[in-house]
Amino acid sequence: MKTWTMIDYVDETEDTLNKIISIREQLYENFAQTYAVNTNKYRNIYLIGSGTSFNSCITAQPFMEKILKKHTIPVNSYNFAHYEQLATNDDLIIAITQEGESTNTIAALKRANGLNCDNFVITEDRVNSCSQIAQNKIILACGFEHIGPKTKGYSASILTFYLIALEAAKKAGQLTVKEYDEYISRLEKTVNNLSKIIKESKNWFEENSADLKNCHHAYLLGYGNNKGTIMEGALKSLETVRDYFQPFEVEEFLHGPIASMHKETYTITIAPVNYGYERANKLFKALNEQTDHAYSIGRQEGVFSKHVLKGSFINDKDFCPLEYCIPVQLFAFLLYTSQDKDLNIRNYPNTKDILATKANNVK
């Protein structure tokens, strides 16, 4: 029986996402039709999830708000279920849970039903707890991942959010056919570049492995629509390397956290060339002059260092998170394997039974 690893699923990402794009109309017809009929009713759109799923909500939010022209609010499942006070039956709820057994997302969907909100769950193509509770289901067509730290599922989650927004906007007449086709063409161009990014990321890590394998404390820095990318990158390293990794938007990093830097602190800046790049570039230059452990995923103007993964990034202003999530996923995998960490050994294992996060055992 094959023993699956994160890198196996990362390597499948391009093919998986291309398949999803090719059958998008079939997958998302029900959502698009429901949205088109009710578009004037919906006041807000809530995107709800936990962990990696919640990070995909953060990443997708700017694009969904732009395309659907509705206030789009990412809320983690627990907070929506127990603290959200302003949701009404005029709001659309979209929950996401890859395996469909998140106890907090179950609670959030029950709350949505109690509020009589139209709701959908994005989840795997099988019967699970969340698909039985939600009013409607959107298939997360990435297949099952046999490991805890999800990778291609995260990429597929982002893509699914992008595509349901495009299908709904087209159906509602908010996008012309020409505009819709242009977005799909840009998405395909980005997705078809992922295998190249995977190869370049592996080479970049190998070139810097002598230093990177000593990384135990890192800040992941980003901006714009890659806020979710740094959150997911930190989460992946926390799950695997099991040391101190924390994400900060560039501007928030400057408002206090930078004071905690010391000689063993690593920084990894996610640097797409779009709004926010100029200040991130200045910050990277300043860090690079003061520490031996400043790294960048994305080119840094005026800096020539093997620590900078220039890569063949397309840098699409809307879809670049699909590219930039790949290197941080590989960073987590390659770092924990270089440090000989064993993911089968759980830290504080007794908490899993005391504080269950899954409704059923996922096989």
CATH-assigned fold name of the largest domain: Rossmann fold
Q: β content, as a range?
A: 5-15%
Tell me, rounded to a whole number, the average pLDDT: 95
- Provide the CATH architecture of the largest domain: 3-Layer(aba) Sandwich
Cα end-to-end separation? 14 Å
Q: Return the domain count.
A: 2
Fraction of helical residues: 40-55%
Mind describing the biggest β-sheet?
A: 5 strands, parallel
- As laid out across the biggest beta sheet, the strand order is 2-1-3-4-5
SSE arrangement, N to C: HHHEHEHEHEHEHHHHEHEHEHEEHH
Tally of helical segments:
16
Class of secondary structure makeup: alpha/beta
Main CATH class of the largest domain: Alpha Beta
Q: What is the molecular shape?
A: globular
Task: Give your account of this protein's structure.
The chain is an alpha/beta fold and 363 residues long. It folds into 2 domains: 6-191, Rossmann fold (3-Layer(aba) Sandwich), CATH 3.40.50.10490; 194-338, Rossmann fold (3-Layer(aba) Sandwich). The protein has helices at residues 6-11, 13-22, 24-38, 52-68, 77-82, 103-114, 129-133, 152-171, 177-191, 194-207, 209-212, 227-240, 250-254, 277-290, 321-338, 350-354; strands at residues 44-49, 71-76, 92-96, 118-123, 136-139, 217-222, 244-249, 266-270, 294-297, 308-309. The strands form 2 sheets. Strands 2-1-3-4-5 form a 5-stranded parallel sheet, with helices on both faces. It has a 5-stranded parallel sheet with strand order 7-6-8-9-10, with helices on both faces. Helix 4 (52-68) links the parallel strand 1 (44-49) and strand 2. Helix 4 (52-68) packs parallel to helix 8. The two termini are 14 Å apart. The mean pLDDT is 95.
